[in-house]
Write the structure tokens for this entry.
Amino acid sequence: MKIALILILSSSIVFPQGKSQKAHVHGAAQISIAMEGLKGEVEFEAPADGVIGFESEAKTPAQKKLVQDAITTLKSRGGELVIFPAASACKLTPKEVEVHREGPQHAEVHAHYDLICSKPISGEIKFGVTRLFPKTREVSVTFVSDQSQKSAKIVGDAGALKP
Ligand SMILES: [Zn+2]
């Protein structure tokens, strides 16, 4: 399994949850949204079990395909993971998607997107994580902007976050 790992931290935006705080709970995920004006970043992090289906090193062609499929989904369907109000015309552009080991038995999937909106966000942000990755049921979301700081727990894609 060879996945390009390029971490570019060019932004001054600070995510409210540092990496040290994240918990590895199968079936759960974390999404951080940070905005400054109309621009921002979205980070998605989840145990690979809930996204790929397993956490061991991918060895067989079938396992490698599952990893590749998950990465392709994360790269191409970020706008379905985090669903911004249509009126804000936000666009998510994948910046980095990777799978990293967490000790000998566990692995995490991490996706990082650039976010740009045409208008300020008015209305609710919704989520479609469980629709894309049915084994991931629970998502802890944080939103931080120059105007607000909110968090929400989304279970089975129900509920929303209002910035
Ligand atoms: Zn695990």
The radius of gyration is 15 Å. Residues 24-155 form one domain.
